[in-house]
Amino acid sequence: MFGLAKNRQLTKSNVLVEDFPKFLSNVWKTIQEEKDLNLPAEKILVANLRCNQIKAEAYKCIEEPLTEILYKAQTSVNPEFAARVRELTKGALDEYTKNTENYP
Question: In Å, how far are 8, 27, 28, 71 from 11, measured between CA atoms?
């Protein structure tokens, strides 16, 4: 019924393999509650959950160095401040984009 694609997606459902258990859990919960089954809505729910987790992970990676830079900026002039903040935020954004590109 579902085949694995090269880009880690399930070919018919467009849900990433690592998110499939959560997707199925949400579907089963909906079935048990006898609600109308809306698979696209479940995909969006799982995508939102995962994208928020990935965003938190990306921020966590730059939180400490960013805090240090901001602290130093309050106590002294740092000519590399803007470049360093840009570098950190670009790295976090690139990581977020890479990890969320398969979500709707």
Answer: 9, 18, 20, 48
If we measure between CA atoms, which residue out of 81, 21, 29, 64 comes closest to residue 46?
Answer: 21
Span 9-67, pLDDT tens digits: 444 556 777 887 888 788 777 777 765 656 677 778 888 888 999 999 999 999 999 99
Q: How many C-alpha atoms does 90 have within 13 Å on its Cβ side?
A: 6
| Segments in the chain forming alpha helices (H) | 20-32, 39-75, 81-100
Which DSSP category does 17 fall into? G
3-class secondary-structure state, position 9: strand
Q: Could you give the count of Cα atoms lying within 13 Å of 3 in the half-sphere of its Cβ?
A: 2
Across the strands, what pairs with 9?
Answer: 16
Residue 28 dihedral angles phi and psi, to the nearest 5°? -65, -40
- What the block records as the tokens of 31 is 């079935």
